[in-house]
Predict the structure.
Amino acid sequence: MSTSEIIEKLQSMNIDFKIERFKKQAQHHISAIQLAEDHYYTQDFHAPGPDEDFIWLAMIELWNRITPEKHNVEMIDDLMQEGYEDIDKQNYGEGLEKWEKTWNMIVSIVPPHIKSVTEADKFIPDLMQSIFNWCQDFEIELGNAGLKDKAFYVKRIKYCQDFRRLFPHSDESIIRNMLGAEAESYTELGDLEAAKKLLQEID
C-alpha cells in the first residue's frame, strides 16, 4: 500500500491521522506500537475483527516512511533479527553490517544517564533478543569474522571500547569479556603492547 492508501484506510476506520502531528508524536516515543497505543487506540475507531491490528501495523510502516531518521524499538528488533538470520547462513559481511547499524540505533535511543546494558534492556523492552545477550553475540561474531578478514578485528576493538565507555556499570563478566576480546584483537593485529595493557586491567 502507498502512504496515502494507508492513511485513507486509517481515516475510513475513523482514525484522525495527520502527518505533521504524527512526526511530532514520534519525537516523544521510542516505539511505534506504543505510539499507536497512546494516540490512536484511544480514539473512537471502527475496526471489525482483524482490522484492529491494522492500526499498529500502519504506525510501524508510516514511521519507517515518514520519519526513518528517528530510530525506534521495532527498527532495532527487525535489524537485529535479520542479522542473526544472515550470520546463521554464514553471511557475516551483511549480518555484521546490520548489527553495526543495530548498535548505532541502540546508542542513539538510550539516554546518557543509562550506564549498564541491564538498564538499557529496561529502557528498550520487548525485543526478541535482549541487548544483554545480543551485545555479547556481536562481539563473538566480530571475532569469528576476524579469522577471515582482519578488518573485523579493528571493528571489534572499536565496538568493545564503545561498549565499555557507554555501559561501564554493566555486569563485571561482560566488561571482562570485552577487555579480553579487545586484547585478543590487538594480538591478532600484531599490537602486543596494547594487548598487554588490556590484560593487566583484567588481572
Observations:
- The chain has two domains: 3-66, 74-202.
- The CA atoms of residues 129 and 178 lie 19 Å apart.
